[in-house]
Structures are given as C-alpha cells and as structure tokens.
C-alpha cells in the first residue's frame, strides 16, 4: 500500500482501461494479438505526455489527472457522439461533429485551467485514483481470464470430436491412379450476395445478364441455391472443412464465443488436403477477422496495411475522438483493399510454379456501401459511423454495389478463362441479404418465413476447365462442393452429405433446420 501511495500509475491504467473494456466486450470475435497496436500506441503517447506536463507543472498528481481526463475525453467522444445521433433532438438534425466537439473542448479547457491554478494539496487523490484504476483493470482481467479458461476447455472438447484426427488423415487419401496436372482452384466468396429470385422480388432487379454471362462461358449455374448456415462465422468454416458444425451447439451453448469457428477456419481441411497434393495456398485479406489472415495460407495478398485493417482498431477509433477522421483514416484503406483483390486475382497463378488454391472472401455487396454501379465512390463525407448503422438497409445502395461487383467479376472471370491454363472457379456467397430484418435483433429472434428465405438464398456458380458441369447437381449446397470436386479430380471417396439448411439468430449456435421451409415455393 505504501508503494501505491508513492507511485503515480493511475493515468496509465485509466488510459488502457477503455482498450481492455472494448476487447472484453468483443472477446469472442477479436484475437488477443489485436491488442498490441492500440496498447503500444497508447503508451507511446501517454508516457511522453505525462513527462512533459509533469515537467511544466512540477506536479505528478496534476499531470496524472490531466492525462487521465484527456484519455477519458478521447475514448468517450465517439460513444457520446453516436448516442446523440441516435437520440431525436426536437426532430432536427442538429448533431454534427463541429457542434459536439465544442462542449468537449470547453470542459477540457476548464478542467486544465482549474488544475493549473489551484493551490490545493491533491496528494490524497494519488492513492485513491491508483486503487480505483487497479481495481478496474483487475476486474477486466478477471473476466478475460475466466473467458479463456472456459474457452480452453471448449477447444479440448472440440478436438475430442475428431477434428484433429480428420486433419491427420488427409495425407493418407489415395493418390490419383493416373498422371495429370492438377488445375488451379479459385474459391471466391461474395458476402451477402443473394439469389436472382430475391433480387427480382425484393429489389425489382433482374440479374439475368450476369447469370447468362456465366452460363455462356460454361459455368454450372445453380438455379436455386441455398447456404447451409445464416452467418458467415459458421458458413465459411463449414465450407472449408466440408462438414456441418451443428455439434458446436452442445459445446458452446448460449455463448457467442466464436473462437472455435475461427480455429477451424485457420486450420481447415480443404487447404490442408490441397497442400498434401502439392498446392500453394493463397488467401486474400478480406478486412474481416476470420478471413483476413487464414493461418493455413502461404501467400497472403492485399493485406499490406494491417494496421488500418484491424477490426478492433477500427472499433476503437470509431469510439474515440478520432471518430471525425475515421473515414479519411480507414475508408480509403477499405476501398484500396477491395480494388486490390480485383486487380490481383488474375495474377495469383503467376506467383507459384505449383498449382494454387486461391481463397478470396470479398465483403461485397455487403455494407458499407461504397461503390456506385460504375465504380464511382459514394461521398466519403457520409461514410461515417451513422452510415454504417443506418445505411445498412439502403436497398438502392446495395443494388448499386452489386452491379459494380458484377462488372468487376466479369472482368476477373474473362482474365482467368483467357489465361494459358484456365482454373476451376467457384463463385458462391456465404448467405443472402437481410433487409427484411431491418437491422433489429428482435426480428432475428422471431423471424418470419420470408425473412428466413431471404437470408438463406445464396449463389453458386462453378466452372471446370473440362466443362464437366454434370458432376454437380441441382440442390447441392456448399458443404458438398469440395467433396464432389475432390472426388472428381483426386479420385477420393468423400461421402456426399445430405444437403440441409440451418437458420440461427445473429451470432448464435441455435441452429434450426429450415430445409423444407426454404425449398418450398
């Protein structure tokens, strides 16, 4: 206790508290490694700032209080701004950055002026603030530690389910009985791309031009396609492991913990199988946690700017006083990331002398809605926190971005098919759109039949260099795509699973079989 009374540690602990608080609230989705950058930057700023203010005022207590107050304002500004935007103020649009920041500055100047001028002895505040900050941090550490203890147990249970054994058995799959050069394989996942049926009914848009384009080039175009799961964090690892993940319900229960799906996406069966066949694995940075940096991949593309491509750092910035600059800092990086994928996809096959498996999960036409139909960028001034909440249900903007995506994908497909060795191309979506849900959790908890159908309608287009489209079948879902493909190219004997469709609430493992409902007219 005597040491606590002498040291001034509270400004540093109070400054990192918001970072650990945000992490604890999103621990089921954010890897602990994403704490490194914000914690490092915070200490690089806070420590010199404390030294300078202490040198000027000749008072460590005053310097500590000022630094603490600055940190509180910095990390709370975005939360307060967003709260004000969501609160009607006499039905007038009066909430702008310039209006909100003024009272913050007035309060800050007032407090700093008082601390500089006061002659009061503030020594007693040192131990009080030290103790409070230590208790707050220890409380968060306790919650975080509890999560990891429980999570370790769930991973052990998952391994007992045979996942590790499946991976170990990959190399024992029989080699093909004849010699041939295996084709490159491109798996492109277009996030939230829905079926032509939904586009016709809900958007009054006929997507036949894009579908006819693919058909004319020899693609198997699934007439009625449905995703196995309603959420990306389940549907993507399910596809990459060629299996249903319903058993996670018993292991994880009501928790929203996504650690296990992330783990099995990182060390997935499809990529490991292809590695055993001599393939080089390439992954494009999606900008989303699970598919931003898949560990099984050897080539990691379009992810040069990892600092600005951290989901956690984006959340932290949007909640801070950097909120007004969020668009300029991050959205330009997001635009470059998406355009990079289109540019680099046709070039991947030149990066390796071995056949390549290319996985590209693209957050398109998923919001935020950045692109117009002809590639024009929507006004960046509007691409702020409020847009990402309110504009998610902008059907017109979604449709414009989908048209842009169609044009870019046709260019990519042309380039791939015109290459010396055309690859296998799988274009699918992880799930459909969710406009009928209106962004409300209540509707996710009790969806109508039409809501479920909208969400589960997806796309499935597959091209084989041999034009053997008859190896696929109508009604095939994503869980069987690689089973069929591997059986054809590698003469494996993977069982073709029953094609089932499961709906679940946002972020949950409460899977409900909706196969009959979705397939009904």
Can you offer a commentary on this structure?
- By secondary structure, the protein is α/β, with parallel strands linked by helices.
- It is built from 22 helices and 9 strands.
- The strands form 2 sheets. It has a 7-stranded mixed β-sheet. Strands 8-9 form a two-stranded antiparallel sheet.
- β3, α14 and β4 form a beta-alpha-beta unit.
- α3 packs across α4.
- The longest helix is centred in the N-terminal third of the chain and has 38 residues, at 123-160.
- It is elongated and about 85 Å long.
- Mean pLDDT is 84; it is low at 89-94, 162-180 and 384-389.
**Euclidean distance between termini CA atoms:** 72 Å
Low-confidence stretches: 89-94, 162-180, 384-389
Major sheet details:
7 strands, mixed
Pairing-aware structural class of the strands and helices?
alpha/beta
Oligomer state of the chains in this structure:
single chain
What is the strand arrangement across the widest sheet?
2-7-6-1-5-3-4
Radius of gyration: 26 Å
Strand content: 5-15%
Helicity, as a percent range: 40-55%
Categorize the overall geometry. elongated
Mean pLDDT level: 84
Q: Based on DSSP secondary structure assignment, what is the total number of beta strands? A: 9
Number of helices: 22
Task: List strands and helices in order, with pairings.
Elements lengths: L1 H5 L3 H16 L10 H22 L2 H26 L11 H21 L5 H38 L2 H6 L16 E6 L5 H8 L4 H9 L3 E2 L10 H10 L6 H5 L6 H8 L2 H8 L3 E5 L4 H4 L6 E3 L9 H8 L7 H19 L11 E7 L22 H6 L4 H23 L6 E5 L12 H5 L3 H8 L3 E4 L17 H10 L11 E2 L8 E2 L1 H5 L2
Parallel strand pairs: 1-5, 1-6, 3-4, 3-5
Antiparallel strand pairs: 2-7, 6-7, 8-9
Helix pairs in contact: 2-3, 2-4, 2-6, 3-4, 4-5, 10-12
């Amino acid at each position: 206790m005597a040491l606590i009374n002498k040291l001034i540690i509270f400004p540093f602990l109070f400054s990192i508290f918001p970072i650990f608080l945000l992490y604890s609230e999103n621990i089921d989705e954010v890897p602990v490694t994403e704490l490194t950058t914000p914690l490092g930057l915070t200490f690089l700023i806070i420590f010199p700032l404390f030294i300078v203010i202490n040198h000027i005022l000749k008072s460590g207590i005053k310097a500590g209080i000022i630094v603490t107050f600055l940190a509180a304002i910095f990390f709370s500004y975005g939360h307060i701004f967003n709260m004000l935007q969501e609160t009607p103020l006499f039905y007038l649009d009066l909430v702008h950055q310039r209006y909100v920041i003024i009272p913050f500055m007035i309060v800050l100047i007032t407090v700093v002026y008082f601390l500089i001028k006061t002659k009061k002895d503030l020594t007693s505040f040192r131990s009080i603030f030290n103790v409070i900050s230590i208790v707050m941090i220890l409380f968060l550490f306790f919650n975080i530690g509890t999560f990891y203890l429980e999570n370790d147990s769930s991973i052990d249970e998952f391994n007992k389910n045979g996942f590790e054994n499946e991976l170990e058995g990959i190399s024992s799959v029989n080699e093909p009985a004849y010699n041939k050069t295996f084709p490159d394989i491109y798996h492109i996942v277009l996030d939230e791309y829905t079926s032509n049926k939904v586009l016709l009914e809900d958007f009054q848009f006929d997507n036949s031009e894009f579908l006819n384009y693919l058909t004319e080039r020899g693609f198997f175009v699934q007439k009625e396609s449905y995703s196995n799961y309603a959420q990306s964090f389940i549907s993507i690892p399910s596809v990459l492991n060629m299996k249903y993940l319903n058993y996670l319900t018993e292991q994880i229960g009501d928790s929203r913990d996504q650690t296990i799906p992330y783990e099995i996406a990182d060390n997935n069966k499809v990529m490991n199988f292809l590695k055993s066949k001599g393939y080089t694995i390439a992954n494009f940075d999606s900008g989303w946690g699970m598919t931003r940096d898949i560990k099984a991949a050897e080539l990691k593309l379009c992810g040069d700017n990892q600092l600005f491509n951290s989901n956690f750092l984006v959340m932290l910035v949007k909640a801070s006083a950097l909120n007004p600059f969020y668009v300029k800092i991050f959205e330009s990086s997001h635009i470059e990331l998406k355009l990079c994928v289109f540019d680099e996809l046709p070039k991947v096959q030149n990066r390796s002398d071995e056949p390549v498996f290319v996985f590209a999960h693209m957050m398109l036409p998923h919001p935020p809605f950045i692109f117009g139909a002809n590639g024009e960028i929507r006004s960046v001034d509007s691409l702020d926190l409020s847009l990402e909440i309110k504009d998610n249900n902008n059907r017109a903007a979604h449709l414009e971005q989908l048209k842009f995506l169609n044009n870019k994908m046709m260019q990519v497909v042309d380039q791939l098919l015109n290459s010396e060795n055309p690859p296998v191309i799988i274009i699918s979506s992880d799930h459909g759109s969710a406009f009928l849900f209106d962004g409300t959790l209540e509707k996710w908890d009790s969806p109508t039949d039409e809501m479920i159908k909208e969400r589960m309608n997806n796309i499935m287009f597959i091209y084989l260099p041999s034009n053997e489209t008859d190896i696929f079948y109508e009604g095939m879902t994503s869980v069987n795509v690689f089973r069929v493909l591997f059986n054809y190219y590698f003469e494996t004997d993977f069982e073709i699973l029953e094609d089932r469709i499961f709906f679940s609430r946002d972020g949950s493992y409460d899977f409900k079989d909706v196969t009959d409902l979705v397939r009904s007219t």
